[in-house]
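Listing S7. Sequence submitted for prediction.
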Amino acid sequence: MFENYTLEILYEDEYLVAINKPSGLLVHKSMIDKHEIYFAMKMLSKQIGKWVYPVHRLDKPTSGVLLFALDSHTAKLMSEQFSSHTIEKTYIAIGRGYVADEGVIEHALLEKLDKISDRDKNQTREAKEATTAFKCLGRVEIEASVGRYDTVRYSLVELKPRTGRKHQLRRHMKHINHHLLGDTKYGRGEHNKFVREHYNMHRLLLHAISLEIKHPFRDEKLMIKAPFDEVFTRMLKEFKFNIIFDVTDFS
């Protein structure tokens, strides 16, 4: 899938480089996906001819803004920004049901540990606080039978995580019963099947559309934005969300 793939570079200077990570691509090599041979970190290093240092991560099925540093000192400074939650991440997602106009999800999450890569960690850790702000951007009702209902309802949602727990947005949307479409881990199987069969949609509809950071060496803020891929754009049009949500605002 990613053979001869050219990553879309959203921003680059002598300290930082940001890409638009496609859905399905790992950030770096992982014991969880031992069969995978393509990683954003390795691909980007080869593409720009420089070693890159990851400062945060996106889940494999999530697309959007992914930031790297070009040296270890910059990586440390940027990691501190992410750890102190002084950056702002904005995601766009499509979830099942009619989501409330806006709100804040405060729901502690147990740390997700992998049996292989996290085998040396304490497996009995307590849940950690996790907070996500959300805003509904649009709603749609479709004449189709899924489960016991004659119609299906979906919402276009803006999500802003205020903490950085693993799979936080997907788990929080499940917690409020608005599972994200295409989420094979936390989503609803009948809705995933519906969009696969009726719309040929085979990805998680969660996209990191913007990242706002303070430049590590200049007194300025950077707003890095990532356009949607073809599949996400097509689903916005299918559900007519493109009428109420101007995707060019983020391109």
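Caption to Listing S7: primary sequence and predicted structure tokens for the chain studied. The helical segments are 40-48, 72-83, 168-175, 189-199, 230-238, 241-244. The mean pLDDT is 91.
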